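Hi R.,

Here's the chain you asked about this morning:
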Amino acid sequence: MDTAEIPEFPPVSQDMRAYVCVVGAGIAGMTTAYLLARAGRSVIVIDDGPVGGGETGRTTAHITAALDDRYYRIEKLHGEDGARLAAESHTAAIDRIEAIASLEDIDCDFERLDGYLVLGGKSQREELERELEAAHRAGLSDVELLEQSPLDSWNTGPALRFPRQAQFHPLKYLNGLAKAIVRDGGQIFSSTHADKIEDGEPAKVTTRDGHVISADRVVVATNTPVNDWVILHTKQAAYRTFVIGAHVPRGSIPHALYWDTPDPYHYIRIQEVHRGLDPDHLDEILIVGGEDHKTGQEDDAEERFERLETWTRERFPMVKTVEFRWSGQIIEPVDGMAFIGKNPGTDEHIYIATGDSGNGITHGTIAGMLLTDLVLGRDNPWVKLYDPSRITLRATSQFLKENLNVAGQYVDWATKGDVDSYEEITPGTGAIVGRGRRKLAVYRDDQGVIHERSAVCTHLYCIVDWNSVERTWDCPCHGSRFDPLGNVVNGPAIAPLGDVTKPALR
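And here is the predicted structure, written out as tokens:
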């Protein structure tokens, strides 16, 4: 699809000082930096990759207040006031994105459109009726129940219509934010890995190259926190979600956001793309996602992509060719709401944003708005709902379920591994190999060279698993991911897989 020209930013090359250091250059980090820079605060943004190179670059960019955890569940967990604040904050996030895109003249394909929640699986009409009533109580009075969505090719049956939702091109939007941050005096540094984040006066972020960034406040916006060891990771879980992009005839599918009700659910939208040299020639890509599973606990991505394509072709027979396939990391909090605010525990100057719950664009924008208010000492009515220190007693069963699942992953220490010998590992693949009491993550590259790392995740010491489609080592406990050579791709791990001090073999 169309790509955005994100400006290139150099790595940090010296010790630095700012009022706020933002770790992470995705939607949450960049929105926070933008709003703080607009407020006149000195801001430094660092990321170990390019701007938008993490999960924001993998989003399907549904910008919506139609939450996938359902308002009737949010109301049960957080009360009527909590559900109202959830609706208010996500609606405000859509408005803020539109306002920023307009103010900064960001050409990011922002488009207001309707969203439709339709039935799927064994769900019945009563679920939509229940959600309609809860959405109205939450203040979304314009949500309505229709007898059919606008789709002609798929007889969806009844559908909830959520007016004035939105979509955009996330990288084009971040490109505009990056330019505005620099214009307002902020600094952005790519290829800068945070090795250590410490509270204090000032707080300090130490990079892998040993440089220190001192700041009055630090915001950790890295999809899942890399500064928190345990607390937050017991209250949320990492899932992989899968997406295909299929070429469809222009105008064959009404532009809207679509979701169905199963768990995991499907999510659908249309993206216009430019083709060839003619700037006026536009094609359309049907984006369809779903087939989620817990990170590191399955290695069947090919089958999931095939199921997505089959599901899509059954409902959208006009599909021509599938041109794109990718996956992303979803962080699911046990009670449906993101964690945005001061880091739990004794930290006084470190703030976090995590727990996107499938609504990363709006949750990330809420994070920018809420964290800016917290850093500047302004009141914000959403503080309690998103408080990272909160304990939601009504979510106890989900909390226990997720943490029992994590505990069960440590049995991998007792297994012998995936293969008995290196000869079984073909070029371009990896496998866990037992060596005495140790577990090794062994990768044979495309040239046949063997690379060994410790298979022990550097976060909380689970044994990683090989992801054959994305060529990563994925942790089944809290979702850390590492490239074939053991370098961190996703937190919460902050350090690479351990070196087993053995030279490479052929």
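One quick note: The domain at 105-168+235-332 is CATH 3.30.9.10 (D-Amino Acid Oxidase; Chain A, domain 2).

Cheers,
M.
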